[in-house]
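Entry for the shared binder. Reason: the reviewer on the internal report wants the predicted structure included alongside the sequence.
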Amino acid sequence: MSGSDERPLSVGQQALWLLYRLAPESPAYNVVLAMRIRGPLDTERLARAVAGLADRHPVLTEGFHEVDGVPVRTPGRAGAPRLVVREVPVADLFEAACAESVVPFRLDLEPPMRAVLLRRAADDAALVLVTHHLVSDATAQWLIARDLLEAYAGAPARPATSAFDEVVAAERRLLDSPRREVLERYWRGVVTGVPAAKLPADHLADGLAGLPKGSSTTVWFDPDLAVSVEAAARRAGVTPFAFLTGAFQAMLHRHTGESDFLIGCPVTTRLRGGLREVVGYLANSVVLRATFDRTTTLRATIKAAQRSVVTANAHADLPFSTLTELVAPRPPLFTIAITMLVADRLEPPLPMVTPDAVEGREITYGGLRLALLDVPQMEGQFDLLVELRQSADGLSAVLKYDAGQFERSTIERVAAAFTRFVRLAVEDLDAVVADLSLVDASDLTLLLAMGGSTHPAMGTGVGDRA
């Protein structure tokens, strides 16, 4: 490398950089946290708090470029993030926040984070924090928000965290160690000869379309069902995430007719080595395999999901792009994924404000009245990503999908089928998956009265069609 301050990217960052270079105008890798702020706001103090983020998290000052075709990052090259204030006296704050969230980054010219205050009145505003995925992930975004609000409130600065350089160095040591062979052997055993689960599309995917055409739909689980999931998971000896993943895999089996398939699972890599407080891209993707036969029960599926999640996480230190290179050439390892976010990392938890309820509940934090704006983000990366969220407001599933392939109505039917399978699992874990319908009896009666449907999401299951 030509400059002393130029530093290598992690393997995951290299993959993200390639995606950025292919579609620099895409917002698909913008990580967003937006807050409604009510009450008197000291804009100058907020601006100082934003600029001060760089002291604890120098990755927020990094510029990205290439040297002899190799991507590098240079701390300080882009300068510290600064607060931008926009006066929006007649704007819908949610719509304005959504518009800010999709502005692309120029990673060679500007900081990989921006903070925009949308001020509708002296005591009514929205703060939109946007970072590029190259330097952030879901947890990092909450760390940024927490540190910003604490600085605004005048709290003592937290100790400096481990540098992201240590993350990159540790990854390189791993890839040069005998551990790499162990990881590669495990993942070969999981994926060899197994296809990715694939939803029947409404439209052909256009590989030359350029920017992802992402969208999303959200399903809130009934509070009673959410409580029942936790209780049923405890009885089964699995985590709630494994319980929900098993139900999702069972639904996919009935939806697609596939009896052996792979799905993806984005995971965090910050749970080891003192990395919990590090802002940076500390995420990876693992692959989960599911198998079914005519006798497989929901209990067996959920237990298998638990084993798969545990062992996948134990082998999650192999970068996903390294795995794809290892098994190339083959089709993508997965096009459907599931993950779970713990949505609140502030104390007290930050309530969600949806677009149709912008006067919703608030908390007081750092002298400000706050609520979280549920701004859509990072859509269209996969055919389908189910993002489970556990928050102060309850349990929900956000289905992010490729709108170039799927109609919203199709994904809404998939969401309904998933919710149904979760309820079926709560009611009877010993039910045989092959006997389960994707729709309940009343919906099936209505469909038959309408003449049926050739779309598997609207039938009882692929295996039931002649």
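Summary line for the report: The chain is about 35% helix and 20% strand.
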